[in-house]
Design goal:
This protein has helices spanning 11-17, 29-40, 52-58, 77-82, 120-130; strands at 20-25, 44-49, 65-69, 93-97, 112-115. The chain is α/β, with parallel strands linked by helices and 131 residues long. InterPro entries: Bact_response_regulator, CheY-like_superfamily, Sig_transdc_resp-reg_receiver.
Length: 131
């Protein structure tokens, strides 16, 4: 850069072009892959986990959001949410489930609760809203 040039990107520009990381945790391999494909053309970089315990082990300070299945074999969605304080993760959680919210898990436990079926637009829009 010459002495007369100034940087053209501001911190706001850098933030808007920055890729956020979402952890997709679902025990259904095909559905998890579908969610990953849906997010491929979005500003989200994806990581995946096939169980609640794997999700907890992958949550670090580089993960900006998590999409979490409610029912998984080892640790359920509510159990994962209960253990988030033991991780460095501080982002929003979007629960994605075939089951309606109830006393064990509802909108107050997560940034958003989506009931299946959902489409790619719903998922990307919800992640953008909660981030």
């Amino acid at each position: 850069m010459s002495p007369n040039q100034t940087p053209t990107d501001t911190s706001a520009d850098r933030h808007s072009s920055q890729t956020d990381t979402v952890l997709v945790a679902d025990d259904d391999d095909a559905f998890r892959e579908t969610l990953t494909l849906w997010l491929a053309d979005s500003p989200w970089q994806t990581r995946t986990a096939s169980s609640g315990s794997e999700a907890l082990s992958k949550l670090d300070d580089s993960v900006d959001a998590m999409v979490l299945d409610r029912r998984m074999p080892d640790l359920s969605g509510p159990e994962v949410i209960d253990r988030l304080d033991d991780t460095p993760f501080e982002g929003p959680v979007v629960v994605l489930s075939a089951f309606e919210p109830d006393d064990h898990l509802d909108d107050s436990d997560a940034a958003a609760y989506l009931t299946k079926p959902v489409d790619s637009d719903d998922l990307v829009e919800t992640l953008s809203e909660v981030q």
